[in-house]
Every structure is written in structure tokens, then in C-alpha cells.
Specification:
Two copies of one chain form a homodimer. By secondary structure, chain A is mainly α. The first copy, chain A, folds into two domains: about 55 residues, Arc Repressor Mutant, subunit A, CATH 1.10.10; about 130 residues, no CATH class. In chain A, about 65% of the residues lie in helices and about 0% in strands. Chain A has eleven helices and two strands. Chain A has a two-stranded antiparallel sheet. The first copy, chain A, starts with 12 loop residues before the first helix and ends in a 5-residue tail after the last helix. Chains A and B meet through helix 9, helix 10 and helix 11 of A and helix 9, helix 10 and helix 11 of B. Chain A binds a DNA duplex through helix 3.
DNA sequence: ACATTAAGTCACCAACTGGTGACGTGTCAA
DNA sequence: TTGACACGTCACCAGTTGGTGACTTAATGT
């Protein structure tokens, strides 16, 4: 026994980089962004932290690389649904209500996205910038599928939708720690059914052209 | 010169406690809750950190004591305005629109409150609990001044208002770091005038009884 | 005048953070 | 076979965090 076997670890750069990227995701969804650091990621990935510097340059670049991975932001299709034509048959208000309902559901089933959404309110960093850009592009793309028919309403469509989106973000982020907001349940499907119905009513009554 | 004069610091327990409490507020509004720690508060107050343990017991208790101080949450009067009767002459929708507009303005001019509002989405602690309780009681009290006249609307008044409040919180918290939300300015008076007008439209069209 | 108590100072601790330099060792080409 | 290089390990650094024990010194009551 000469002891102290270095265990000949896989020696595979690509695999190691992936382990690190997965580590970021694992920590974000399990412990939250507050615990995300060089040491934690390295440990989670079972890799020496010096490799983060060697392969990525540092934490910001690692986050940037992580931001390139897909899936943490809902696709437009996820909100539009399988059959876009079906959505188009609805009124402007109903269309947006369905879209925003699906949007909220899509956020709710993405722990990492929820985490970054929360992070965005506390700090500015690579990942948050990426998420923000992705969201803004996504929103523009979405608008193309939800044409702003001038005849359909005289209200400020975009601002109204963004206000509702803000509320959705607030409730989604809050749901990580709290069960309700002054009585509005934000951590159950039933609670969100109710929120969806409130949004539906608001949009139906706000987006009308006959005035 | 025998040097090393201990400078005979004021030696006043009450004053020292107050310096510590002020230190909490100063750090919250200048650096944010992320920098709020035993060491930081002690340094800000120009006091040894051991006194925090001696006088309060620890950080949670210090935060609790800070939470008892007044002013960081808007009073009902600040939202109702000087003349309650004037508000009562308005329709349900207009009344709430004015109230929520004043509410947003009250939050915007309170850096510490904004900070705790942000904190609330990230962590649970003494101070956040206190703010939450204060907010919920405040909301109930406010509802008493904004009677839910059953005849005035068939919509879910409370849920709708809370949704708007959620959006307001989101924008207020976001404004600490970002200037806008997909184009909606959240850091200028003009931006908030616009948000207020959007809220007004939504409420006016949602809270109607003639259906 | 003197002892007791309370206010404040100081030095230290362990744990953790991000970051780096020096060291092995497997792989592959010349 | 023998280098050179890339992959990975390890030990260490300085700085910061929360937390504590032992000390000095001022105010107070008898």
C-alpha cells in the first residue's frame, strides 16, 4: 500500500465543464442564489474550484455560460399553446388572459427561473442581465403573436399587460417563501386559478372598444 | 505622554441603544439589507459589537426593536388624505385609484421600507414578519375606510386591489436597481404618473355594477 | 472612602469567502 | 522512449463574518 490514491478523476474537460454548469442549476434550485458561490458550485460539482477559473475565468463568466443553456425561460410556444389559431379566435382580452395564465404556470414550474426572477430584484449580474434580455426579446416576440389590434381597445394595452406581469412576478417570487399575500394564496393551484380569474375579469373589462 | 487614551466614550446606555437602532436604518437605506450584519451595524453606530449582544441579545432582537420604531410604514392617513370626506364623494374605483396612487408614492419616498419590501421576497426574519403583520393590519384598517359597498361592483374587490398592490410592490422594489420594466419607467415621477393612470383605467372599468 | 455594578474596550476564536501558486499525473505526438 | 501539455489535486493566502471572555473605567449607593 503506497496509499493516497488520487483516484484518477475522469480527466475530461468537457464533462467537467458540464458538471460545473449543472452545479449552478442544482444550487439555484435547491439552496437559492444566496448560496451560489465559487466554493459551493465546486463542491456541488465535485470538482476543484480552481477549474472554474481555468475553464470559465470566474463566476461572472460561469453564470454567463449558464445563461446560454436553454429551458430556464419559457418558450413563446409554451404560452401560445399548440394551436395558435385557436387562440386567435378569442377576443383580445381572452387571448391575453389565457396567455398570461399559461405564462404564470410556466414560471411556477421552473424553480431556477423563479430564483433568478427574485435575484433580479436584489442584484445586478451576468445572469440577471441575460434573463432580462431574454425576457424583453421574448415579450416583443410574444406581442407579434398577440397583435395590438387598434380597433380592439382604446386602453393602453402594453402597460396594462406589463402591470399584470409585474403582479405575477411578485406573486411567483413571493411563493418561494410565503404561502399567501394578505389572504391571496400564491402557492397552490387553486390559489392561482383564482388569480387567473381575477386577471381575466380585469382584462375583459379593460379591453373594450365600445365606449 | 502616556498615550492610548480610551476617550471616555459617552457611557450612556440609552443613547448607545439608539445609536445602534439608527445604525440599522442607516445601513438599510444606504447599503441595503445585504450589508446588514453585526459588524456593519456596530461600525456604523461607532460602538463595539459586543454591546449589541448585551443590550439586545443579538441581531434578531435588534431587528425586532428596530421594527417597533415608527415611520417606516405609511399611516392610513397618508393614503386617506387630509379630508376623508372628499375621498368618500368619489366612486369606488376613483377612491381606490387615488388611494393606491398615494400608497405607491408613500412607499417610493421610504428607502428603508423599499428595502424591507425587497428583503421580504428573499428571506424570512424578525423584521420582515413585523413589516408583514403591520401591512396586513394596515390593510384591514384601510378597508374600513374604503367600504366594500356590495352594490358598487360585482367584481372581486379585494383580490383585484391586492393584485394591483402586488404590481406596485414589484415596481417599487425593482426601481432600486432598474430604471424600467420592459419600457415602463419605474424610477421617475412621470413613469409613476403613467402607472397611476393605467391603474385608474383598470379600476374604473373593473368596478362597475351596471352589468 | 470604598465596594459594587454597569458601560465600554480589546483581543481573540472558528468558520467561511474568493483567489492563487506549486505540484502531480495521465495522454498524445514527435 | 521521451518530452510537452492539459487535467486535476492540494495547500495556502488574506479578508470577512458572527460570537465570546477578560479586561478597564466611570457612576452609584452606603
Amino acid at each position: 500500500m503506497t496509499g493516497a490514491r488520487p483516484q484518477t478523476a475522469t480527466r475530461d474537460k468537457k464533462a467537467t465543464k458540464e458538471r460545473l454548469l449543472n452545479g449552478v442549476g442544482a444550487i439555484l434550485s435547491r439552496q437559492g442564489f444566496g448560496s451560489l458561490g465559487i466554493n459551493a458550485v465546486a463542491q456541488e460539482a465535485g470538482v476543484d474550484k480552481v477549474l472554474i477559473y481555468r475553464y470559465f475565468g470566474g463566476m461572472p463568466e460561469l453564470l454567463h455560460a449558464f445563461g446560454q443553456s436553454s429551458g430556464f425561460w419559457p418558450s413563446v410556444a409554451e404560452v401560445i399553446g399548440e394551436d395558435p389559431h385557436e387562440l386567435m379566435r378569442l377576443s383580445l382580452a381572452d387571448r391575453w388572459a389565457v396567455g398570461l395564465s399559461r405564462y404564470a404556470a410556466a414560471l411556477r414550474r421552473r424553480p431556477i427561473t423563479k430564483e433568478i426572477l427574485a435575484w433580479e430584484q436584489i442584484e445586478r449580474n451576468e445572469l440577471c442581465e441575460i434573463l432580462r434580455d431574454a425576457r424583453e426579446k421574448w415579450f416583443v416576440e410574444l406581442m407579434a403573436h398577440f397583435p395590438d389590434d387598434e380597433a380592439a381597445t382604446d386602453a393602453d394595452l402594453i402597460s396594462t399587460v406589463l402591470l399584470v406581469v409585474g403582479a405575477i412576478h411578485y406573486f411567483v417570487v413571493l411563493s418561494r417563501l410565503q404561502g399567501d399575500f394578505s389572504g391571496v394564496a400564491v402557492d397552490t393551484d387553486e390559489g392561482w386559478d383564482h388569480i387567473d380569474s381575477v386577471i381575466l375579469t380585469i382584462l375583459q373589462r379593460t379591453f373594450t372598444a365600445d365606449r
